[in-house]
Amino acid sequence: MKNILIINGHPNPDSFNHALAAAYRAGALKTGASITEINISALIFDPNLAYGYTKRIDLEPDLLESLEKIKAANHLVWIHPVWWGGLPAVMKGFIDRLFLPGLTYQYRENSLFWDGLLTGKTARIITTMDQPGWYYRLVYGSPSIRQLKKSTLEFCGIKPVKVSTIGIIKTASLKQRQKWLDKIHLMGQRHK
After folding, report:
1. HEC states along 11-80?
2. CATH homologous superfamily, domain 3-189
3. pLDDT tens digits, 101-142
4. Cα(92)–Cα(95) distance, integer angstroms
5. d(Cα 143, Cα 137) in Å, to the nearest integer?
6. Closest by Cα among 138, 140, 133 to 163
7. What are φ and ψ of residue 140, in 5° steps?
8. How far is CA 12 from CA 15, 41, 42, 143, 178, in A?
9. Burial class of 95 by CB neighbour count within 10 A (0 to 12, 13 to 18, 19+)
10. Which of 115, 154, 173, 179 is the most exposed place for a label (fewest CB within 10 A)?
């Protein structure tokens, strides 16, 4: 049985991102998959990596529980909006505090190289924006997607990482939003 973890990075529980997460969950549940979730904004933790990597700060209980959910999952589904070309601050803080050496990756001794500690997992990034995905890619280079996909997930050994962009959100009709929800529901049924 597939163990899927849905990680929602939108801080507003009434957002379209939360509707997308519900659509994915509903689709995946139809197949008998096991679903766990992390709503980052509901966690209690300090998002600031106060000392960088020079001094380790103990992980709060919500971060420890999140780490266990990540380790237990076969497939991670990250859902987030693009704000100012990047990730929401609370989501960035979640990654900064949790994706640490010894937990999700490990540098080799006396080397520039590293080993991902989350190998054997796959991921899907579903990101919403107020511009077409092609424009975000061609004009801006998709910075939030590259950051999450390449510099975080693949760095930690998660492959493949597939991406779905959804936009333009601010001008979308209810009919268009329903089409996106149906698409994500089907994606959940296919565990992609």
Report:
1. CCCCCHHHHHHHHHHHHHHCCCCEEEEEEHHHCCCCCCCCCCCCCCCCCCHHHHHHHHHHHHCCEEEEEE
2. Flavodoxin domain (3.40.50.360)
3. 999 999 999 999 999 999 999 999 999 999 999 999 999 999
4. 5
5. 8
6. 133
7. -105, -15
8. 5, 8, 10, 22, 19
9. buried
10. 173
Instruction: Please name the helix (run of DSSP H) or strand (run of DSSP E) that holds residue 182, with its range, or none.
Output: helix 174-189
- SS3 category, 168: coil
**82 neighbors 44 (Cβ within 8 angstroms):** no
Q: Which of 82, 6, 3, 96 is nearest to 42 (CA)?
A: 6
Q: What is the largest CA-CA distance in the chain?
A: 56
Q: How many residues does the chain have?
A: 192
Domain boundaries of the chain, sorted by first residue? 3-189
